[in-house]
Amino acid sequence: MVGGDGLSAAVKKEADAALKAHGLIKVRIFSDDRTLRESMFQTLADELNAAPIQHIGKLLVLWRPLPEREKTQDADRMPGPRDFKVLKYSSRGGQRPEVKTLRVLGNQRLTAGGQVKRAKPKQVSIKKRSQT
User: What is the pTM of this model?
Assistant: First the structure.
């Protein structure tokens, strides 16, 4: 929103941050002068390197393509350990069930019975094995 101070540096900075995050933004200007709103619209579009999409009344719509984000992922990185809470029932019938916290590593899985087992390697079909 652009208030009585007009198009200040703080407004431009905030609009630039919003365009980096979302790509398409709406800016509301609380001024009754249409020519002033149109000049603000063009100024914002030029200074922020954005495309002026629409100007309806006091609402301005600006668009700029989102910048490419680099994915920093290591090839050797494995998923970290996860903690699960498991309800263990006592072998004796009258005892209270016990809550245990189990840590499951990246190469393990938790069975329906509450036991930790090593995960099986992914099955590869015979057809795909013969292709490689």
Answer: 0.53
